[in-house]
Specification:
Distance between the termini: 30 Å
Oligomer: single chain
Number of strands: 11
Largest sheet: 8 strands, mixed
Helix content: 25-40%
Strand content: 25-35%
Radius of gyration: 18 Å
Order of helices and strands: EHEHHEEEEHEEEEEH
C-alpha cells in the first residue's frame, strides 16, 4: 500500500544517537513505555464551549505533537531508517456491537474541520463489521482509549517485531481534580529511534498545539457534536 506522505532516507552515520541506535537496534525487545498524565483543562473547557468532541480534540493535539517531533516520524524499513514528512492517527473506535475497529482519521490542521470529518467517519464505523477501516500504513501513529477507568500504565499487544517503530499511544479515563482536567497517557516507542527526552518533546509540542488553538480559535461555525 502506498504511503500517504513522502519520506526521505535518514542517515544514521554521524547522527548524535548513532551509537545508541546500533545498541538498541540489536535488542530482541527494543520498545519501552512511559506512563504519565497531561493537564488538558484548557482544551476540555474549549471543546465544551465550542460543542466539539473532547476525544477528537486530544487526538488532534496528539497528532500535532507527533508531527512536530522529528524522532516520532522515523521508521525502520529493512536496513534503512526513513523519515516521513508527516503522519496521521489511527485509533480504536468502539462500535455498536461493543467490538472495536482500527480507524484512520485523516489529519487537518483546523481543529473544527478535523472534528467534523472524523465524527462522520466514526458514525459510519460504528455500524461497520470491519476490523480495519481506512488506510493502514507506516506513516501513522496508533492510539487507543480506555475511557471507562483510570490507568497507571498499559502494555500494547504486539507480535515481537523488532522493526515495528510506529509510536503507540493509550489514553485513560479523564479525571477532574478540583478545577483541573487530567488525562492518563501511555507512550510506547522504539528505543533505537526515540529516547525519554523525545517523549518530553512530544508532550511539549502537544501542549503547544493546544495553546495555539486557545490563542487563535478556528474562524468557523462548529457543528454540534456528541462527545465520544
Amino acid at each position: 500500500m502506498k504511503a500517504l506522505y513522502p519520506k526521505t532516507i535518514f542517515k544514521t552515520n554521524g547522527w548524535e544517537r548513532e551509537e545508541h541506535f546500533h545498541f538498541f537496534r540489536s535488542f530482541k525487545q527494543p520498545h519501552f513505555n512511559v506512563h504519565t498524565e497531561i493537564d488538558l483543562t484548557d482544551l476540555y473547557n474549549y471543546t465544551k464551549r465550542e460543542g466539539l468532541s473532547f476525544f477528537l480534540a486530544y487526538l488532534h493535539a496528539a497528532t500535532e505533537g507527533i508531527r512536530n517531533t522529528e524522532n516520532f516520524l522515523l521508521r525502520l524499513e529493512g536496513d534503512e531508517v526513513v523519515q516521513y514528512k508527516a503522519v496521521d492517527i489511527s485509533t480504536t473506535v468502539l462500535k455498536d456491537d461493543k467490538t472495536v475497529s482500527f480507524v484512520h482519521l485523516p489529519h487537518h490542521p483546523e481543529l473544527h474541520i478535523f472534528c467534523r470529518e472524523s465524527s462522520a467517519i466514526i458514525e459510519e464505523v460504528k455500524k461497520s463489521r470491519k476490523l480495519f477501516y481506512g488506510y493502514n500504513g507506516p506513516d501513522l501513529v496508533h492510539a487507543t482509549t480506555l475511557p471507562w477507568f483510570k490507568f497507571n500504565g498499559m502494555e500494547h499487544a504486539h507480535d515481537n517485531d523488532s522493526n515495528d517503530a510506529i509510536p503507540k499511544l493509550a489514553f485513560g479515563q479523564l479525571e477532574k481534580k478540583d478545577t483541573r482536567v487530567i488525562l492518563p497517557v501511555s507512550v510506547r516507542v522504539h528505543h533505537a529511534l526515540v529516547d525519554g527526552y523525545h517523549i518530553h518533546l512530544f508532550l511539549q509540542h502537544m501542549q503547544a498545539s493546544i495553546a495555539a488553538t486557545m490563542s487563535a480559535p478556528d474562524k468557523l461555525v462548529p457543528r454540534k457534536q456528541e462527545p465520544f
